[in-house]
Design a protein that fits this description.
Elements (H helix, E strand, L loop, with lengths): L1 H11 E3 L5 H10 L6 E7 L6 H14 L6 E6 L6 H8 L2 E4 L13 H8 L7 E4 L4 E2 L4 H12 L5 E7 L11 H14 L14 E4 H4 L4 E2 L4 H13 L4 E8 L1 E2 L4 H20 L7 E8 L2 E8 L4 E2 L6 H8 L1
Parallel strand pairs: 1-10, 2-3, 2-5, 3-4, 7-10
Antiparallel strand pairs: 5-8, 6-11, 7-8, 9-14, 12-13
Helix pairs in contact: 2-6, 3-4, 7-10, 9-10
């Protein structure tokens, strides 16, 4: 298995500089129908960062060159000015609750990504987290590049350094403590992914619409594992885009993320009885430690191609 991963790393790991923009635009011009690109930013109270990300994508990848066809921010129910800032910067903004209203929305990142398939049209869908700082267009051009130039590639994740404050490489704590051990033990073919939980990746719509979506933080691990079983390791890749700087969560929030990711893995391992779908954490109060119990995401959305509205839209 290690030899297989090493061969994959050699064949399916690239740098964003390996495919210059002119090569990507030439590939698009050769087959524009099959290479349309939608960029989706899931956003919840990200007014401080979403505008700059949208502005970079519009300027670098929609105006200077025609690499991205549509740029959509899916607002997850923000209480700040996220929607207004994103719209002013040039994105189309869609509220989560306005998509597929017959199915009440659940809270969670995966829910937003799943619904985004109904309001985008690109044959390649690129997801970008909305809390990134010092954003580079390489996060988009790098991940869509292999999909534009190699028809055998289906799913590409960004890889990068993740500093924690001034400490290089110390971000990604849930990745190192939970996701990486799970993948190495249970899906060792995926051991070569540097950032398996990263929120920046590009996927062919024809694959995304076949995959179930965990509604919460387990979505990245779930999509990666299910893609492996659906199209095989050689259809997956990763691209080095440099450094990712973003807002870090506190330890308790990371614990809740870890529980959701573990649950997503457990479901895929057993497809049977789930571990206790709640997580108890502790906070110090006036009289000692106080337990706080949080629900762990237990819902998954079905493959989008099973949704009538999606099937009708794409049949048309």
């Amino acid at each position: 298995m290690l030899e297989e991963v090493e061969r994959w790393l050699t064949r399916r790991s690239w740098s964003s500089g390996d495919r210059p923009l002119n090569r990507l635009t030439d590939a698009r011009a050769a087959d524009p129908r099959r290479t349309s690109v939608s960029v989706v930013l899931p956003a919840l109270n990200e007014e401080a960062t979403v505008g700059a990300i949208v502005a970079v994508i519009r300027r670098e990848l929609m105006e200077k060159v025609r690499l991205v066809d549509e740029l959509v921010v899916i607002d997850s129910g923000s209480t700040d000015a996220t929607a207004a800032v994103a719209r002013a910067a040039g994105a189309r903004v869609v509220h989560r609750d306005a998509v597929l209203p017959r199915i009440p929305a659940l809270p969670g990142k995966g829910e937003v990504l799943w619904r985004s398939l109904l309001v985008t049209s690109g044959e390649i869908v690129c997801f970008v987290d909305a809390d990134l700082k010092d954003f580079s267009a390489d996060f988009v051009s790098g991940t869509v590049g292999p999909l534009l130039t190699d028809p055998t590639v289906q799913f590409v994740k960004a890889m990068y350094d993740r500093p924690l404050g001034d400490r290089a490489g110390q971000g990604g704590r849930v990745t190192e403590l939970v996701a990486r051990p799970l993948l190495n033990l249970h899906w060792p073919q995926l051991a070569g992914f540097v950032q398996p939980l990263g929120g920046e990746y590009a996927v062919r719509r024809s694959l995304l619409e076949r995959l179930p979506f965990p509604v919460g933080y387990g979505v990245e691990l779930g999509l990666l594992v299910d893609a492996l079983h659906t199209v095989g390791l050689d259809a997956l890749g990763q691209v080095d885009v440099g450094v990712r700087v973003h807002r870090h969560q506190d330890g308790q929030a990371l614990g809740r993320m870890a529980a959701a990711i573990y649950r997503t893995a457990q479901l895929r391992l057993s497809r049977g009885h789930l571990v206790r779908p709640a997580l108890t954490q502790f906070e110090r109060g006036e009289d000692g430690f106080v337990p706080r119990t949080h629900a762990v995401d237990t819902e998954e959305r079905p493959p989008m191609r099973e949704i009538a509205e999606y099937a009708e839209r794409h049949a048309a």
